[in-house]
Design a protein that fits this description.
Two copies of one chain form a homodimer. Chain A contains twelve helices and twelve strands. By secondary structure, chain A is of the alpha/beta class. In chain A, strand 6, helix 9 and strand 7 form a beta-alpha-beta unit. Chain A starts with a helix and ends in a 6-residue tail after the last strand. The interface between A and B is large, with 56 and 56 residues. Chain A binds a DNA duplex through helix 2 and helix 4.
Chain lengths: ~325, ~325
DNA sequence: AACCCCTATGAAATCGTTCTCATACAGCCG
DNA sequence: CGGCTGTATGAGAACGATTTCATAGGGGTT
């Protein structure tokens, strides 16, 4: 491997001068600079990133910790966050929890020794902060920027970038009520997910604002995560047990798709018999049939906000990304 | 930051001994070992990964380079590859090209100086190997394991793990012919994608095996990547121009979904008027209505193969992952 | 008792870069 | 002509871990 010493001796200068030329900081004689640059070019020298990191005290990587990168918003988030991070000349380390929190604990313990620039936590799951707090604090103390995306941890003094999940769910619920679609069911409550609870809160708030009490029979819990099969099963059970409802707000697009399939299999027309609203705004929603009304989340906006944090170096306490309701055939 | 010197002086030994204890290699007196371990515990010492990497000459990261991590197979691939890599005690660096090849060039040039353990190339796009070869070779010379996943680059002496795309497409085409669904259209040929060409080859091979010539009018090119809107547009145009076909093999599930939506919007019944087969085996396909027949790809199997490469250290020349046809309502 | 071997440990070099401090030399002023 | 200022550069330390080489003893053999 060609190193700074090789370049220096090739150019007939000291390593210090090579370093100076490449950093472009201190004044170097024009002739010397040219000679060094030529040697760099000629030998194809690239500074060793590891040595730089060691010397600098920290590296150039930001870790993205996802709950399940395969699902919903998170693939898009990974894509756009990577783009932002790369734009800043940093690298993205990906860590996928896959519904196992002990791995987060483990990762946090390892984090300070990795020389990370930052950690972007992008998991919707409620975390046991009592257990996580010590590791978290150790990480932050070691100069790592910690950021929670999608879950609001601002009450634990962790900068958070979150969607207005509650507002979005409320908007969707109001939309269904406006269409005279009461009773409205809620498909896919997950109690162990902060994001899931926020969505349910929006549903409840909107109902109560119109003097409607939440009917526990019309709230269908799931445990497995926001997947289509869970939506299919929960909706099938609801329909088969003869519950009366004229619309469904699903906690994710995948759940809504499963729910719509269940309705179709039972000869119920969407939206005539049951209207559906999904959550997430995934690309294929517009090509489901009927096209799916959905609360649209903005992975790109989140990624931009993440990029801005690392660009400016200043942490927001809590930044809220608006959601918007995209109305399509499944609810009209 | 607590380092090996701090631990050493706390335990009353030299840094060398601390290192020995942690490596567990050379014999260390039991009493000394216990004392060192206690100090490690007490001070919460974690070896600095950057310093280790510098000393060792390479780090513990593997880079995953995707074309578009948001699409089709690749989110699942990222998830499972991350799991495998983590299981080996390594970290995953994510690099998403987003349809811009010059960034790959750039990344390859930077790669040797990052001390990477390996690079897993997971992009379906044809690459200009003439341009890429020098950087590629430089990377491999510097001791980095290079691996192409999903695109066959074995002819360039790059170890490749690929799906049997051609076989899958042939199977799907035969299935449609067996159902007496000729003429069969091909939705979404991409000439600039090696994977896309392999899928088209399977289609053509299967037709020719039955003495049917490919009808160029029934092959619909797209340029934008395997997205549902491209499928919708291409299928709409095909139907509106009055082409005669009774089934469609799509180059991806997303394209098939768009195509099915286009058919539905024109009052055509799936599968009665037009049968559809998708490609990819994405989770939601079973909940499309009608449920989608698809050629199923196995991201997990690919990830396992990737893991095996780094576990064993030996590169396959070319490893082929079988595909299978999952038959559902959209084609029966 | 002298010698040797083996175990347990420490001192110091090393990885490649950056940065601080020191120095050499040129030019300028008194 | 001596001393001062300032620019251009080099020598060497530092980052934190690993590893080679050297050495101090303890125990065994002759």
């Amino acid at each position: 491997m060609v190193n700074v010493i090789a370049v220096a001796s090739h150019a007939g200068v000291s390593p210090a001068t090579v370093s100076r030329v490449l950093a472009g900081r201190v004044p170097v004689a024009a002739a010397t600079r040219a000679r060094v640059l030529q040697s760099v070019e000629q030998l194809g020298y690239r500074p060793n990133e590891t040595a730089r990191s060691l010397r600098a005290g920290r590296g150039r990587a930001v870790a993205l910790v996802t709950g399940d990168i395969e699902q919903g918003l998170y693939a898009g988030l990974a894509k756009h966050v990577q783009g932002e991070i790369e734009g800043l000349g940093l690298d993205l380390l990906l860590f996928n929890l896959g519904h196992r929190e002990d791995r987060l604990q483990h990762f946090l313990e390892r984090a300070p020794s990795l020389g990370l620039r930052g950690i972007v936590l992008a998991s919707p799951h409620v975390m046991d902060m009592a257990q996580l707090a010590p590791a978290m604090r150790a990480v932050m103390r070691s100069g790592v920027t910690v950021l929670s995306v999608s879950q609001d941890l601002s009450s634990f003094d962790i900068a958070s970038i979150v969607h207005d999940e509650t507002g979005g769910a409320a908007m969707a619920t109001e939309h269904l009520l406006d269409q005279d679609r009461a009773p409205v069911g809620f498909l896919g409550r997950i109690e162990t997910s902060a994001v899931g609870r926020a969505r349910f809160d929006g549903y409840r708030t909107a109902l109560e604002a119109r003097g409607i009490e939440v009917d526990p029979d019309l709230v269908w819990d799931i445990s497995k995560g926001y997947r289509a099969d869970a939506g299919y099963q929960a909706a099938s059970r609801a329909i088969d047990t003869g519950l009366r409802f004229r619309s469904v707000l699903a906690a994710s697009d995948e759940l809504a798709l499963g729910g719509m399939a269940a309705a179709a299999d039972r000869g119920l027309a969407v939206p005539q018999d049951i209207a559906f609203v999904g959550f997430g705004g995934l690309g294929w929603g517009v090509f489901a049939r009927p096209a799916m009304t959905t609360v649209s989340l903005d992975a790109y906006a989140m990624a931009l906000a993440v990029g801005e944090v690392f660009r400016s170096g200043s942490l927001p306490h809590r930044q809220i990304i608006p959601t918007k309701l995209v109305i399509r055939r499944s609810s009209c």
